[in-house]
Hints:
Layout (H helix, E strand, L loop, with lengths): L8 E6 L22 H13 L4 E4 L25 H8 L7 E7 L5 H14 L4 E6 L4 H4 L10 H19 L7 E4 L4 E3 L9 E2 L4 E2 L14 E4 L4 H10 L2 E4 L4 H13 L12 E10 L3 H14 L2 H12 L22 H13 L3 H8 L6 E5 L1 H13 L5 E4 L6 H16 L12 H4 L10
Parallel strand pairs: 1-2, 1-13, 2-3, 3-4, 4-9, 9-10, 10-11, 11-12, 11-13
Antiparallel strand pairs: 5-6, 7-8
Helix pairs in contact: 3-5, 5-6, 9-11, 12-13
The structure holds flavin mononucleotide (FMN).
The site of flavin mononucleotide has 22 residues, from β3, α6, β10 and α10.
Amino acid sequence: MSERKPQIKLGLSIAGHGYHHSAWLHPSVPPEGINEFGFYLDLTRTAERGLFDMVFLADFVVFSMVDVPKGVLGRSSRGSFEPLTLLAALAPQTECVGLVATASTTFGVPYHVARSFASLDMLSSGRAGWNVVTSFQDEEAANFGSATILEKSSRYDRAEEFVDVVLGLWDSLAPDAYVCDRQSGYLFDPAKVRTLNHVGRHFRVKGPLGTPRSAQGRPVVVQAGASEEGQELAARTADVVYSVQPRLETAQAFYAGLKGRMAKYGRDPDHLKVMPGLLPVLGGTEAEAKRRFREMQELIDPLVGLRYLSAIFGDLSGHPIDGPVPELRKDKQLATRAQLILDLARRNNWSIRQLYESTAIGNTHNTVVGTPEQVADVMEAWILGRGADGFNLLPALSPLSVQEFVDEVVPVLQRRGLYRREYEARTLRENLGLPAPPTAH
Ligand SMILES: Cc1cc2nc3c(=O)[nH]c(=O)nc-3n(C[C@H](O)[C@H](O)[C@H](O)COP(=O)(O)O)c2cc1C
């Protein structure tokens, strides 16, 4: 009997109008969509029609009013809804798709995060996930009482403890804590409630949390930091890692490296799913896909393209747009993504313009331009080559790119035996093929 092929896991990363930085200028994209619930509901239902494991909402806690380069303000796409609130509204309108929201360990406190996600997990009958981020922008810090963001090692030091507290709080109630026994008069059994009594360097949290264990035990933990510290946190605590991997060779190294870190925490490498971003641009033929890609390139607003780079490299207005990318500002410890972008520019000897043209669709994630078969070929090669367990689909244009992927690529993956034909289960954890989480009870 032939062995069953590995099954691709899929997430949809919903980012407003799409991952093309000027997506909202495209005639297929409704500009007001990002402020309308129906837009997100349609995207989520399309993902569910495509049997996706989850939809994923990135989040940054700032509405930037920095006008760099000058004149850019008001020209770029934004997200509008607070992710957990939005997912709570999507929960009763969907059945099987996982609902993952981003929440920052730098600006939040563990009790609130634990409680909100546990509630979403109850509301969705075991489909919630928390994307743990440490945040990195000064502009975000300014909304939380400080002018600059904590430096990276302090952020991760806090994040390590933060995640432990949240996991501890999620384990407050034993699965059978609610006895509802009218005879004895006990609604819940106090012996089945754990008080956390956490005292650490960053937090003192007594607990317990009153939210019962959900159908999947506790929310799925997603992690997106790629630095040394980020990978260590993920190896110890994450169920899913969302990464930026533009090339198979580096993806394989990242995949092996991350899974290799898990043994020292007593974890099985299969219990962490690595899902790099994937941005397909589809066409009936390769030539058509390339034409559509060029059309998208023509939509790029140069100011918006520069804005993305300026956020990383500082104001580039003084530098010739067709000249080389200047040395990075030295005042900040660089986020892993910024280093990746700089390496890309240096490796290809790109000018500032060439760099923003290449990052304006997909932020350096793996962009594949081709037919549905060609996109499926890449996905298959990455899965069989142990570069990924699945992918986070990054639609260039929403909702069009999501619909195209579901209608055109999903059937190819199914025919090849690489993707489910129906959901295996109702919970996110089970669909991802992850075991029930441990409990101290
Ligand atoms: C694929 C991916 C998605 C991310 N999404 C978010 C996000 O939605 N919000 C956020 O504040 N940070 C996000 N981050 C940032 C990281 O969580 C982390 O704070 C940042 O990358 C700096 O840490 P690092 O050097 O470990 O990557 C994301 C990072 C990656 C790689």
